[in-house]
Amino acid sequence: MNIPHRLVLLCSGIITLMLPAALVAADANATIRGTVSNQATGDNLGGATIRVEGTNHVTHTERDGSYTLRDLPSGSATLRVSFPGLDAATASVELTPGQTVRQDFALTAGIYVLPEFAVSGTREATALAIARQEQSAMVMSSVSSEAFGSIGQNNIANVLRRLPGVVGDVMGVNVSSISVRGMDEQHTLVNIDGTAAAGASQSTDGIGEAVGPAGRASLLGSVPAEFIASVEVIKTPTADMDADSLGGVINLKTKSAFDRSGRSVHLTAGGTYNLTRGKEVDPTKGQYIFPSVELVYGDVYNVLGGQKNLGLFVTAKHFQSGDTTGVTRVDPAEGWDFEGPTLPLRVAFPTSFQFLRNEASSVNLKLDYKLREGSSVGLSGGYTYYKRPKDDMRPRLDGGTRVADVGPIVSESTDQLWVFRNQRLEFLRQVKSNNVKTWRWNLQGDHRFDRTDVTWDLTYSPSRQVEDQIATQNMTSTDLISFNWDRSDYEKPRFIQTGGRDITTNNMDSLSRIRAINDHDFMEHEVRGARFDVTRRFDSLAVPFKVKTGVRFREERRDLDQNSFQGEVFPKLGGDFSAYVDREWNFSWPGGLPNVPMPDTRRFFNDAGIRYNPAGAPGQPAMKFDYDPDYLTINSGNIIRDSERDDWAARDRISAVFLQGEFELQPRLRMTAGVRFETTDIALTKPFEDRNAPTVTERWTQRRTLETKYDNWFPNLQFRYEPWDRVVFRAAYSTTIGRPKITDIAGRFSVDEVEEIVSFGNAGLQPQEGKNIDLSVEYYFEPVGVVSVGVFRKRINNFVSPINLTIRGDEFGLDLSDFAGWEGRTKENIGNGTVDGLELNYSQQFTFLPGPLKGLGVFFNWTALSSKGDFGEYNPPAGVPVKNALPKFRPQSGNLGLSWAYGRWDLRVMWNYTAAYLEIPFLEGDEDRSRSLWRGEREQIDAFATFKVSPKLEIFADVLNIGPSNDSAYFGVVAGPRQRDTIWMSTMLTTGFKARF
User: Fold this and answer.
1) If pLDDT is split at 50, 70 and 90, which confidence band does 239 have?
2) Is 387 exposed, middle or buried (0-12, 13-18, 19+ CB in 10 A)?
3) How many CA atoms lie within 13 Å of 882's alpha carbon, on the beta-carbon side?
């Protein structure tokens, strides 16, 4: 592999293409410049189409509404301007050689003269998004942040999941991360204005996998929605885009003052109320209505002698909400007959009731300065402070009953009634505080010359998270409980206590074991990037084309420092915890366990003096916790081990060059072809156990740095054909990768000396490679709407999968000679897979209908996937009605929405659906394939209403998760009786007002 020569070759191409731009003289032909705007609203219209009738000359307006038509012959020319939802306009101009003529357009529509129609930004925003989608060279979906009305919970991810092929992973009623085309969310690239931004939240999903930077997934809950103008979901990225997007690319486009022609000031204020839990969300503080306030300011100024050449857009936001989730877990027995009844393995009920507070404060600004017409520089920056305290209560009834324990517990149970005798009542309470601070700075320039465009940007984005968790755990009562578990309605099972001490009055005065846990984790994620692109147009040739080339550099640094403390509560309290019973919380759920007293974890930690001490204990700096020995006994060696072995620091450096051409083969046929080269350099520093070290500290504080490099070529070819007006055919071939998770590279180095098993990460993991073929046809309605059908095939090579092997000594660059002959567990690139998909999309606004019906609108989309592979598949026993499936692929998803905007009212209702999918497969050779874990299907209905009191004041009310609908998980097969988890969700109401000044 000779990377330098390849880089030199492509960079030489860049220089060669740039030279003509400096040498070619100005055009002798005529030029037309101008701006297109909406006469009724004053908005500048980006994406409008300007065509010189009778010729091949066509262009589209930039974001600020400006356009330029070059190389026009002298004489009379007729311009025709069109934009979805507005009436087309024409103008005649006289041209002479070398002359530049200015022609502005202010479009309107007959609907604006109807006083009964509610003119809002929603209609224009939808039209703009559709215009961008229609003109794109790629297979993509574009939507304005205002297209669906209010943004539920101020979370931009709640907009993204409405788009075809997009699935949102929920945390409560909100979407936390996004996946595209069924892929794991780790493989969806999220950019802001085309560049990556940091996000240090080290959150985990329902099975404990990292979905933050350690897992490469982008968490969107803290992205300030009020700063986002529109979102693009790109399914077939071109060569000028980052290639680590195995699923797709989501690009968030920020707002600019130049989107409008004048000043805009908005004030929004409201409150959120949990309709399911009400005042029980936060009884200790007495808060049950959570406020939010947002101020938006935008204006353009005349500076340094220019006219409207400086744009300033600023947002400031503070938002709170109180959310709750509950998880009821019941485990069916191992090895059950798929056709027969389901018997119990054990019960841990309920698993968890979580009370969550979401708080976000953010300030964002964007400065755009026009140096001259066609040349500008911009600075955007933002700061977000995201806080998410959580109170997690887990009462448990668990006697460890298993089918192998033949006795009355099993024999008395039926498929619909599980009988449990002599179960232990356990308590666990976790109190977690998660604080994330994120900064984002981007300096960019856009310079349009006669035939050459130059764009560049510099990005710096650091994000830091501190997470503290305190917990009292495994407080097993010596009182034994008997109860029945009524499963006649398996989605809402019912608990019936039949014997033992009343669980609602237990004072925790007879406990056999008490444990205190304190975790303090620090996560840091920094992104630095630079981009420089040059585009050269050749408009006067028989086949007009433009060539684009550029270079990219991106560096990401991630640092994880985990600290863990555990102590046994014996010396002072013995088994009596009655002084620390908290009876203020009511966490019972409809159909679930009655209200059980929970431990007052905060009070106990305060009395026991347990706290994180960054300086460490005197004479023992690796022991970073203080505590009162009268309350606790500890094993300092285990604490040092647990605080050191999972730490790591990772650095990715990605350098790229690309060459891309766009050809107008015919007036209605466009081809885009390109190739991208990326080289990736990864360095990982992590602890490595020194089993011969004399002390525990030295054993776990040894560090090693592992390095790996790989390079990839990414060719792509895309066609856009418009045989008739408003009909577009697309065909595309693209290549992408999915980089391995940091957790797969780092891994946890652990040794089981009893079973002789060693587990470790694989620093040599290569990326998963995707080769994608897409075909689609689209029809764009007048005035505003689109219907499309698309099919695709995604061939994925080098899947990352768990493996077991026999240690030989040198494994993946690690010296494991001390463990020769042992079993090794790691991950490796092995196997290939294929995903076939169908995407349907329809949206339309019926403004052509009479009377109140003209305010109707509808949207619908549906995605269906079929996946298969030569590894990691679920191979069910005979008679089980499930097809083979690759893990984590969402086979079906869809949305349906209805809207009605008329007079003073704007009403919307939206349905979102995700089908069941395989989460964790039990592979060929496992003893019990009935333990494969599936996630159940999920539906959610949301409703939004806005009433316009006056042109400058409106009130709104949003309801998320009407019903409410719940989530679930299954063992073995997607069938109700095998349901393991029921995840209870809340219904959330947000209401307030929005004022314009």
Assistant:
1) very high
2) middle
3) 27
